[in-house]
Amino acid sequence: MSVTTSQLSEVATLARLQLEAEQAEPVTNAINQILSLVDQLHALDLHAIAPMAHPRDEIQRLRADVVTETNQREPFQAVAPAAEDGLYVVPPVIE
Amino acid sequence: MTASIRSLAADLRQGKTSAVELTQEYLQRIAQFDDQLNSYITLAPDRALTQAQAADERIANGDASLLCGIPIAHKDLFCTRNLATTCASKMLANFVSPYNATVVERIDASGAVTLGKTNLDEFAMGSSNENSFFGVVKNPWDLNCVPGGSSGGSAAAVAAELCVAATGTDTGGSIRQPAAFCGITGLKPTYGRVSRLGMVAYASSLDQGGVMAKSADDCAILLEAMAGFDPKDSTSSDHATTHYSEQLNESIAGLRIGIPRQYFNEQLDPKMTALLQTALVELEKLGAQLIDIDLQQTALAIPAYYIIAPAEASTNLSRYDGVRYGYRCENPTDLQDLYVRSRSEAFGEEVQRRILVGTYSLSSGYYDAYYGQAQRARRLIAEDFAKAFSQVDIIASPTTPGPAFGLDSKTQDPVAMYLEDIYTLAVNLAGLPGLSMPAGFYDHRPVGLQLIGNHFDEATLLRTAHQFQQTTDWHIRRPSLISGGKA
To answer: Residue ranges per domain, chain A?
Structure first.
């Protein structure tokens, strides 16, 4: 499988990345090289095999559904690019 | 300076030196040599000296572990409170974490002194340490070569004696490959052995923190301080830890070492084969038994990894939005523009490439063909290893296809770069522990032998490497360029 420049541009939109016009072709080529590296997987019939999400096949531990965290708003917002009155500041979404 | 943790700990207790003097000595070496290597991103001299003073008090009070007062460094992917955590990215160039990684908390508690944060490939994505916003790292054995990656700064700093030991992280070989290229010992523990809390995520089902030092003994001491269950990491294992550093002197007589035919084949450089064979003979002399084994699914590791890792990276890195922390673009016109420009301006080329591959392979209509198929292949790889471990105790293989390659020799060819990890990736897919130890020199550049263990059997890997290091001196040699010592 391979991607076209216009498909890749849609993927970039999904990933919230901007694909500059002059980068579009070299990036598409590089990604197609990577996809050709993984293409050998498509030749295999693995339908009978269950996908493995955890490297030791374990299920993640669950904890009791109780609040354990204390409020850390101030230290967390101290590292934000823009925060005011306990809120993160972004450009207006609705005019 | 080829001091081990044990010898330095003895010197500290006998008053031959103090933690403050030792820290000053290492800071001095960094000031003198790191211009050539660029192994550190951030130095923390004041913090280090404060920690050293506290260490000296603990030693004087007889209340000190072996690591107390020992100068170490953290890969700049571990969050440190009040000390920058950049992940070698423009995205986090000014980021100071509000909390410490569990690994950092534990090493601090042991009394070790943190000299600073070491360079890496941006967000740990790379095999050469050439993808850093803070510049490439150079190999102390040959300044025209890469140190390997992604933990290239930690490897170069340990090799050049700019710290005694360092932390690293390994998603597909990022501890073992730079350890091999820089002539040091590096261990990636079993998935879940070391807490991932505060270790900035790249590919969550593969990432694991580990240790890098000159010898297996030093690695064992550092691992002991770091390893163990962490309730704050849902993937942390409660499997009991052991005193790794106390089991090193047991003989390896009778140990069954599997030699995979698919790793030692005609694709391996003949000179590498010869060097590694000599190392294997050395293990045989120590009483180990070499057994040919098959890892039939080896060829699936690269394709499976280069689907799974970018897929997980694309989801993990979606958190960098220019809103809550990290880089924000100037004068965004609207919220979309804020997201898109902040991410496009602050992520480097390789990181963007992996996000695009990951987003594509997870997108509607492709998910099963790529991600699903890669996860099925992953199971075959894991089963392959499980079968091998019914016949042998550990597996030995090359760590890398060759010695350190030249700077800029593979940067234009991502696939050639990815193939550098051919011997290390499968270990992460199966969640196994893997160690690389110095095993000789290819011309003037070090090469490593990889030892792969069964889940939670780090002790056998460390013991085997330690026994090997009792009869070989590869791990003691230091680059003449930096130390003035013999190479």
So the answer is: 5-43
A57: distance to nearest CA of chain B, Å?
9
Kindly report the CATH number assigned to the domain that includes residue B133: 3.90.1300.10
Q: Two tokens at B131?
A: 């993808």
Residue B90 is classified by DSSP as G
In a domain, B286, yes or no: no
In the Cβ-directed half-sphere of B445, how many Cα atoms lie within 13 Å?
Answer: 22
Nearest CA in chain A to B348: A17
Strand partners, B116: B43, B73
Section B6-25 average pLDDT: 98
pLDDT tens track for B275-295: 999 999 999 999 999 999 999
Banded pLDDT at B483 (limits 50, 70, 90): low
If you average pLDDT over residues B93-105, what whole number do you get?
97
Under the banding of pLDDT at 50, 70 and 90, the label for residue A38 is: confident
Block residue for tokens 């030991």: B165
Instruction: Report phi then psi at B299, rounded to 5.
Output: -65, -15
Q: Which residues pair with B436 in a beta bridge?
A: B186, B450
Q: Is residue B320 part of a domain?
A: no
Q: For residue B473, is it within any domain?
A: yes
The residues facing A66 across adjacent strands are none
E-assigned strand segments in B79-195: 113-118, 165-170, 185-188
Give the whole-angstrom CA distance, residue B182 versus residue B145: 10
**Domain extent for B464:** 5-258+390-483
A79 and B CB contact within 8 Å: yes
**Side chain identity at B175, as an amino acid letter?**
I
Q: Inform me whether the C-beta atom of residue A24 falls under 8 Å from chain B C-beta atoms.
A: no
**Are the CB atoms for B180 and B448 separated by under 8 Å?**
yes
Count of the separate structural domains present in chain B: 1
Q: Which residues of B are catalytic?
A: 75, 150, 174
> Which residues of chain B does A40 touch, with a Cβ-Cβ cutoff of 8 Å?
299-300, 303
Tokens encoding A41? 């997987």
Q: Is A28 on the interface with B (CB under 8 A)?
A: no
Do B340 and A18 contact (CB within 8 A), yes or no? Answer: yes
Q: Where does the pLDDT of residue B484 fall: very low under 50, low under 70, confident under 90, or very high at 90 and above? A: very low
- Residue B85 counted as domain residue: yes
Nearest CB among A27, A55, A90 relative to B323 is that of A90
Tell me: pLDDT of A87 over 50.
yes
What interface predicted TM-score (ipTM) does this complex get?
A: 0.95
Q: Is A53 on the interface with B (CB under 8 A)?
A: yes
Closest by alpha carbon to B211, among B187, B228, B192? Answer: B187
